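Researcher: I'd like a candidate sequence for this fold, 859 residues long. If you have to choose between options at a position, lean toward the conservative one.
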């Protein structure tokens, strides 16, 4: 990645000097089809930029990453491309007050999901293109000023194969063989977009009449590859889309400003989705080829609404620089769930948020790389890694706390004023805080300083003192913080008291909301209450914290967790127990035991699937090695028992079937999987569809029970892009030294694989059951990562550094090797060091968890 970085200081200097009036971008992608000519496959990109300079005579630069530049013209003067273009930047000297730059370049199609990605469908040979830019990859497609605060209107035109359709941010029209698109509103470079190919396209429309009598009509479209068309439930996508548009119009009081609303589900996508105005892109895995649970549909709806919220938070109003990425991502993450609950059938989405999204935040906030929600982003590499659990899930959790702090009405009124004052502009933290201060009447600076400008997660623990009659004499909440991040914050929380009923249920009988601040806060309102069996701090999940339990509450959960009737309270308790496990305060075997005992009673399918994932993580990372085989057997037996007891055809049955496959570890388990695949065994109601077949085949391949011929036969059965990814993962999972060597070489030493196949190969390579087989690669990892980071794109570099870290060599020697690499590479790029430090921290945490679990045997 040499020469591709851009620092914040450089961006500030350029923004102070330049302002952009408009772009005309002409792309010719007819070269996407047919045979290549050797070397990188390229397309022609001609860009005209009209811009002003506040200091005539000054110098600056434009951004472009391209194999070659044919011509550069500045203000009518031809410049020598060899002199002004260095592979990543175009030098601009002696600028006038008003300027016009024309760049004619040969840009490369991407196979890494960055820039203009080219995908060839193995099923029918069709070629599909799409762009993905965030944070700074539009410069791989056209020359520009690649930073979010240099907004401008864009006009795109695209020449494509005649049988294709092309889409962009604005409405398009095919004239004389050229697709021409309506000029956009002023937007940032990273949210421009082009999608082209023989996509399956479905249309609908949305209309809304506002109180002033005006009507807004929005053409809707949704697309996917032709091979996925039989599975494409566009009606449900449109239903959620319309519900979201109604919800945001109702709450934001600012009409959707970008004309049409297309949604493209595209192959080999690195992200979940991207908020390009007028043309949102999603990973095509949100089109379900087999049966999935309602949790998957809820997750898709959440992503649709998250991206829609960006049309206001991020696209209409954009952060100045990536320091304030939270101004769009935290808000979109919060609004996605807020709208899911308020507008769709997924009324329990806050349960999923508490259980799943916040788990991501808690992990990220305890890494050595944790940072304030408003981060210090020095350059683009920092920005790329800042799309993390802090910026998304913690930021959203903090906004949920803010709503509790200022009130929902004041919060939404602040958003409305923010849009109207800053439309098509760029903002910083203070711009938002000022309107919230107006609408709430509160001093937002102190709140922001505590919640947005400091890192780390607090722990809240109840302390209960009883009187002689068995009632609460005093109930206090103790607040703690890690030594590395000692900030104690003000928390608006609900404290719930729960007791067992005569029928055995565990139900709430008292609740108060209170402000918790400092190390100890007495909750006076609960004095005199009946003695609780369970005290749930942060009931209803109003704040962002790690919940702890007093001894009585923990004992109650050990025996009666399944009796807790409220699904959100239950999810919060499960999350707290998992945090105790990760913090080495609860032996992993105890968490596994709780899952075995109570997960089968879990009604919320999303919570159940999260529990299964946590149990598997406990098995792989936190269980003492001496007990690992036993834990695996117990989980496999428990999963099979629940699978057989589940309602036939239910989503719970499907979840237990997948979990059974992931935990199967002996001959009888493998035999059942093989018989289910062959159809010689059945489980009433379980449909072993194609996706479930691949889920069964991976553990079989990893344990040597499905060889290359079996996987080839399965690919012949499912000869699709999805099938190919599954097969590649299964092939790399086989327990053979030769297989591992080949997979390593394909990922580390070659660039032949696309981003999706790199991801699949890494997933197959790194099998937790193959610790001994993977041992030789621990040393090799530290030998190659600096070179991989330097030579490959940042996306592939991230995949390799994260995915191939020797986490399954869970012993102190791996920590020592990591520390030795860090000491020897003090000058390595900060983003690379961050990834290695994060992996090291996860491993150190796992070792502490194993020690805690081992102590439970001897204790």
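Model: Candidate sequence:
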């Amino acid at each position: 990645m040499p020469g591709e970085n851009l620092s914040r200081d450089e961006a500030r200097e350029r923004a102070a000097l330049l302002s952009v009036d408009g772009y005309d971008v002409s792309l010719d992608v007819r070269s996407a089809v047919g045979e290549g000519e050797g070397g990188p496959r390229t397309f022609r990109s001609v860009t005209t930029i009209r811009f002003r300079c506040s200091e005539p005579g000054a110098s600056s630069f434009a951004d472009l990453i391209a194999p070659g530049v044919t011509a550069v013209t500045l203000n009518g003067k031809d410049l020598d491309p060899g002199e002004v273009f260095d592979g990543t930047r175009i030098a601009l000297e002696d600028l006038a007050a008003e300027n016009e730059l024309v760049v004619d370049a040969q840009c490369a199609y991407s196979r890494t999901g960055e820039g203009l990605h080219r995908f060839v469908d193995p099923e029918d040979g069709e070629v599909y293109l799409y762009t993905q830019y965030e944070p700074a990859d539009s410069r791989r497609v056209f020359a520009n000023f690649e930073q979010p605060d240099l907004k401008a209107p864009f006009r795109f035109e695209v020449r494509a194969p005649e049988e294709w359709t092309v889409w962009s941010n604005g409405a398009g029209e095919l004239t004389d063989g050229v697709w021409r698109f309506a000029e956009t509103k002023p937007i940032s470079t990273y949210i421009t977009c082009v999608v082209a190919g023989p996509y399956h396209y479905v249309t609908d429309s949305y209309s809304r009449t506002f109180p002033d009598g005006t009507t807004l009509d929005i053409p809707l479209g949704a697309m996917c590859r032709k091979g996925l068309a039989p599975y494409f439930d566009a009606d449900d996508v449109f239903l959620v889309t319309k519900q979201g548009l109604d919800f945001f119009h109702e709450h934001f009081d600012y009409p959707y400003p970008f004309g049409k609303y297309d949604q493209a589900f595209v192959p080999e996508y690195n992200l979940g989705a991207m908020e390009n105005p007028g043309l949102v892109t999603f990973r095509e895995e949100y089109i379900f080829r087999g049966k999935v649970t309602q949790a998957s549909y809820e997750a898709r709806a959440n992503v649709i609404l998250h991206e829609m919220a960006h049309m206001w938070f991020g696209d209409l109003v954009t952060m100045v620089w990536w320091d304030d990425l939270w101004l769009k991502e935290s808000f979109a993450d919060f609004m996605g769930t807020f709208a899911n609950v308020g507008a769709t059938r997924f009324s329990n989405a806050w349960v999923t948020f508490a259980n799943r999204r916040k788990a991501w935040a808690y992990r990220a906030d305890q890494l050595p790389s944790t940072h304030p929600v408003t981060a210090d982003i020095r350059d683009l590499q920092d920005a790329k890694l800042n799309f993390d659990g802090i910026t998304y899930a913690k930021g959203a959790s903090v906004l949920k706390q803010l709503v509790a702090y200022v009130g929902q009405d004041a919060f939404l009124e602040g958003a409305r004023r923010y849009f109207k004052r800053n439309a098509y502009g760029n903002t910083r933290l203070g711009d938002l805080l000022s309107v919230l201060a107006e609408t709430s009447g509160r001093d937002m600076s102190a709140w922001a300083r505590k919640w947005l400008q400091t890192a780390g997660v607090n722990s809240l623990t109840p302390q209960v003192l009883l009187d002689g009659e068995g009632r609460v004499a005093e109930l206090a909440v103790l607040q703690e913080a890690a030594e590395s991040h000692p900030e104690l914050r003000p928390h608006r929380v609900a404290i719930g008291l729960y007791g067992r009923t005569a029928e055995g249920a565990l139900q709430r009988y008292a609740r108060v909301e209170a402000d918790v601040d400092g190390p100890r806060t007495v909750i006076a309102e609960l004095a005199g209450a009946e003695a609780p069996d369970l005290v749930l701090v942060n009931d209803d999940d109003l704040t962002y914290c790690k919940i702890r339990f007093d001894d009585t509450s923990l004992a109650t959960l050990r025996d009666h967790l399944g009796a807790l009737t409220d699904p959100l309270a239950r999810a919060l308790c499960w999350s707290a127990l998992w945090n105790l496990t990760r913090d080495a305060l609860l032996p992993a075997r105890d968490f596994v035991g709780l899952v075995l005992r109570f997960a089968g009673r879990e009604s919320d399918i999303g919570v159940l699937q999260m529990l299964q994932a946590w149990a598997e993580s406990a098995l792989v990372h936190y269980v003492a090695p001496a007990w690992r085989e036993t834990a695996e057997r117990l989980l496999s037996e428990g999963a099979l028992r629940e699978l057989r007891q589940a309602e036939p055809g239910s989503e719970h049955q499907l979840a237990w079937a997948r979990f059974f496959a992931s935990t199967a570890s002996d001959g009888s388990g493998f035999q059942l999987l093989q018989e289910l695949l062959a159809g010689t065994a059945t489980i009433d109601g379980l449909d072993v569809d194609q996706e479930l077949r691949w889920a069964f085949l991976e553990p079989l391949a990893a344990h040597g029970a499905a060889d290359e011929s079996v996987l080839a036969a399965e690919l012949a059965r499912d000869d699709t892009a999805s099938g190919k990814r599954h097969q590649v993962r299964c092939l790399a999972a086989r327990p053979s030294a030769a297989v591992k060597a080949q997979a390593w070489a394909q990922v580390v030493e070659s660039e032949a694989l696309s981003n999706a196949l790199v991801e699949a190969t890494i997933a197959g390579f790194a099998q937790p059951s193959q610790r001994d087989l993977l041992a030789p690669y621990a040393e090799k990892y530290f030998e190659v990562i600096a070179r991989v980071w330097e030579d490959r794109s940042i996306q592939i570099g991230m995949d390799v550094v994260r995915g191939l870290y020797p986490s399954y060599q869970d012993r102190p020697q791996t920590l020592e090797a990591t520390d030795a690499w860090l000491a020897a590479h003090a000058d390595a790029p900060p983003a690379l060091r961050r990834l290695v430090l994060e992996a090291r921290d996860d491993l150190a945490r796992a070792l502490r968890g194993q020690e805690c679990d081992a102590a439970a045997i001897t204790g």
